[in-house]
Write a structure and sequence with these properties.
Helices cover 22% and strands 32% of the residues. With 252 residues, it is an alpha/beta fold. It has two domains: 104 residues, Elongation Factor Tu (Ef-tu), domain 3; 133 residues, Rossmann fold, CATH 3.40.50. The strands form two sheets. Strands 4-3-6-1-2-5 form a six-stranded antiparallel beta sheet. A six-stranded parallel beta sheet has the order 10-9-8-7-11-12, with helices on both faces. It comes from Geodermatophilus sabuli. Keywords: 2Fe-2S, Iron, Iron-sulfur, Metal-binding. GO terms for molecular function: 2 iron, 2 sulfur cluster binding; oxidoreductase activity. Pfam families: FAD_binding_6 (PF00970), NAD_binding_1 (PF00175).
């Protein structure tokens, strides 16, 4: 199904809102029912389109935070003051409202348990995920997919959040996840503190001699800093896949 989804001509689909709930002080989780959805792979994204009464349209891309096994699509939408799309999605949408979306999109920034089973050599390589803020969305899909399929692939997530209240996708974060807080570390916090740097990557991720497949997702400056540190640690450029978000905070 996923291969078909990648090759098909993408058309706009009508999604019905099942739920719109607060995930953190700055992020909402949209749960969408999309009739005709062709299926997706963990790591892919969709484009959401809003159309005003005068015909003006605005579009934004959002990573899918739900695994292929989940029939509804989940999006983690960060509300941006002054944004054209996110304030409407977070503040105005209600259950049974409709939005347009197109997808699934992307075949590079994906991970599949089935693909690892088909390629035994590739499946022996661990998977390292590194997320900043709402960049954890595609990794929520990967973690959930990994767990639901019982995949033997070794997988870890290093996740940077600003505060404990801003940690997203808590329902799928498990012992394979290390969270670091960059602001307001509470008393008794057992995770890391501070921004992800070379030292934290050295301590909390798979080392270069294990040849991990590495996925990095977050704001542009975050993604570039992390990828540069990974290269300095000796990881191969061909092993690193990056999904950057624009300066506006929404995917680019």
């Amino acid at each position: 199904m996923a291969g078909t989804a990648l090759q098909r001509r993408l058309t706009w689909l009508t999604a019905q809102v099942r739920d719109n709930r607060s995930e953190s002080p700055s992020v909402h989780r949209l749960v969408l029912d999309v009739p005709g959805w062709p299926g997706h792979r963990a790591g892919q994204h969709v484009v959401v389109r809003l159309t005003a009464e005068d015909g003006y349209t605005a579009q934004r891309s959002y990573s899918l935070a739900s695994p292929p096994e989940e029939p509804d699509l989940h999006l983690l939408v960060a509300r941006l003051d002054g944004g054209e799309v996110s304030p409407y999605l977070t503040d105005e949408l209600r259950a049974d409202d409709q939005v347009e979306l197109r997808g699934p999109i992307g075949g590079f920034f994906v991970w599949s348990a089935a693909a690892d089973r088909r390629d035994a050599q590739e499946g022996r390589r661990p998977v390292q995920l590194v997320a900043g803020g709402s960049g954890v969305a595609p990794f929520a899909a990967m973690l959930d997919h990994h767990r639901r399929t019982g995949s033997p692939t070794r997988l870890r997530l290093l996740y940077s959040a600003s505060t404990q209240e801003e940690i997203l996708a808590r329902d799928v974060l498990g012992p394979e996840t290390t969270v670091t807080l960059t602001r307001g570390v509470p008393a008794g916090w057992s995770g890391e503190a501070g921004r992800i740097d070379a030292d934290m990557l050295r301590r909390r991720t798979f080392p270069p001699d294990e040849d991990p497949r590495i996925f990095v997702c977050g704001a542009t400056m975050f993604a570039e800093a992390v990828s540069s540190s990974l290269l300095d640690l000796g990881h191969s450029p061909s092993s690193i896949r990056i999904e950057r978000y624009g300066s506006s905070g929404e995917p680019s």
